[in-house]
Each structure stands twice: as C-alpha cells, then as structure tokens.
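Quick one, probably user error.
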C-alpha cells in the first residue's frame, strides 16, 4: 500500500496511526502542501480534491478521506486489530468522538482555510493563531466532557484499547500544542494522549518520524 501524505497533516497522521496499529506494511509518499504538490496534475488524477491523505491499496483501489480510509481497513478485514468495537451503540460512540474532531474542528484550521484567511481576508498571523486556538479549545472542551459523561472511556477514548477515536485525538492534541493551547486543562485527553504516545504505532506515525519531516 502507498499512503500519499504530508508529515504535518492531521488527517494523514490519523491514517498513519491506524495502519501502524493494524501492523500493515505501507509506503510513505510525500505530498508537500506548502510547496503546492497537492495541486500537481498527477496528484489531482489520484485525488481530484487535492487533499491528503490518499491511500492506494494493494489491489490498486484509490481511497480518500481519512475516516473512510480507516473504516475501509476494518471493513476489508486488514491487519491484526479492529479500530471499532463490535456493539452498534459502542461503534456509534467511537465514530461520534472521531467525527467531533475530524469534522467540527480540523477543517476550520487546515491549510486552505488559513490561506484564505490571510490571503483573501487579510488576517494577520496573530489573528490566524487566535482563530486556530479558538476552535481547538471549543472542540477539546466538548471532547473532554463527552469522555467524562459517557462513562465509556478507560485508558483510551473507549475502554482499554486504541480505536478510531484515539487515531483522531492524538493528531489534534499535537496541533493544539503547536498553537499553544493548554492541553493540561483536559486531564482525560492529556492522559490518553500521553499513553498513546508510548506505543510504537503512535511513535512511528509522529510527524517528526516521517521521511519528509522539516523542523
């Protein structure tokens, strides 16, 4: 399998974690967003939206959108573990946790939105950073409360095994720290993130451990 991704993309980071948790072998193909490589004609043939990640499966199937890719890995029975629990209510809960960050927080802070803020609307770097921190804070506030109120979290977002939700949470916490959001305000989130980052699957997926990493 080939994963077209950018080391700092939260969406790509999620999929790297999922592939590693499942013990799957995959090839990193760098698509540098800041160099507009996602707008290159050859890449747009793979992914007309010009976004990362894109997964090319062993059978040649081309898959886009991080959550769809991760669920495909489960649906296809690939790897050693499942990213979703078996019970329908539990599955819906884990999906909701993942979607809360992947759909309600991350899209507001991705590169094309930030470029529009600065380019078309003339936002300063300080204003952009305030925008990012605002939406991350709202998202993590709700996420922390959901973990507390649901009674379903254990050492991880759901029970005591990493799931789809943890694959999404860890990149979001990484992004939060980049923009000086105080994650210590969220004790459950911080504890889950700390535990995840002791596991080889998460360590290997970390941005600094990617071939295209640039400080």
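Nope, works fine. Designed sequence:
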């Amino acid at each position: 399998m080939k994963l077209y991704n950018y080391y700092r993309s939260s969406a790509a980071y999620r999929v790297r974690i999922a592939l590693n948790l499942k013990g799957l072998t995959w090839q990193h193909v760098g698509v540098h967003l800041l160099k507009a490589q996602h707008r290159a004609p050859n890449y747009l043939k793979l992914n007309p939206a010009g976004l990362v990640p894109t997964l090319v499966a062993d059978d040649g199937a081309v898959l886009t959108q991080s959550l769809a890719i991760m669920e495909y890995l489960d649906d296809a029975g690939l790897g050693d573990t499942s990213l979703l629990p078996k019970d329908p209510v539990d599955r819906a809960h884990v999906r909701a946790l993942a979607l809360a960050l992947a759909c309600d927080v991350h899209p507001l802070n991705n590169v094309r939105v930030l470029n529009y803020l600065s380019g078309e609307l003339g936002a300063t770097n300080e204003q952009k950073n305030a925008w990012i921190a605002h939406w991350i804070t709202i998202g993590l506030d709700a996420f922390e409360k959901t973990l507390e109120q649901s009674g379903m979290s254990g050492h991880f977002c759901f029970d005591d095994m990493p799931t789809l939700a943890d694959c999404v949470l860890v990149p979001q916490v990484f992004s939060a720290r980049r923009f000086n959001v105080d994650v210590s305000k969220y004790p459950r989130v911080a504890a889950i993130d700390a535990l995840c980052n002791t596991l080889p699957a998460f360590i290997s997926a970390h941005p600094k451990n990617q071939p295209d990493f640039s400080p």
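DSSP finds nine helices and four strands in the chain.
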